[in-house]
Design a protein that fits this description.
Double Stranded RNA Binding Domain, alpha+beta, 1 helix, Type II toxin-antitoxin system HicB family antitoxin, TTHA1013/TTHA0281-like, globular
């Protein structure tokens, strides 16, 4: 499954959010740490969930974007 991770600048840390899943949010000191943390957050999210992702659920607006990266999650 391919997801989009949007990384924005918070007050003290970078904040990573999965664009297609509003409830998956994490933070880190740098982009690499955010990407590692987002993998963990996704694992926990799907562990106890029967969520079905909808392709048209990506109309969210983000401010202060530092990076947008595609993530392959299995």
């Amino acid at each position: 499954m391919k997801l989009t991770v949007v990384i924005t600048q918070g007050e003290e840390m970078l904040i990573g959010q999965v664009q297609e899943i509003p409830g998956v949010v994490t933070q880190g000191a740098n982009v690499e740490q955010v990407m590692d943390n987002i993998q963990d957050a996704l694992g926990l999210y799907f562990q106890d969930s029967d969520v079905v992702l909808e392709k048209n659920n990506s109309q969210r607006t983000f401010k202060n974007i530092v990076s947008m990266q595609e993530l392959e999650f299995a």
